[in-house]
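Appendix B. Raw example, untouched.
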Amino acid sequence: MSTNSHVITLDQAQTMTHAFQNATQFQGLTVASMIDKEAYQLIMDQSDCVNIRTYFALNDDDKLTIVVVGVDANGADMTDGVLLNRALNCPTTCFTNSELMI
């Protein structure tokens, strides 16, 4: 069990996501990426996987995306296991009524 509480309030989440979306240097970039629950489950079900790490990356169109990898108890990326991408990025695939969107 993690000793680091990752849970935040909606107000905190809004402050952070809106700051990113409003920042001049990030205008026109991807603001969110979505990957299926089943894909994350593939990572979590790997033997020795205790955490998940998300890397920022660029896709074939030079758009911001994510690469997701399992992490073992030593903090090492499990690069010989399941790696995720093919994220549905926003803009393009967005839930525009989200309180996390400006």
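End of appendix B.
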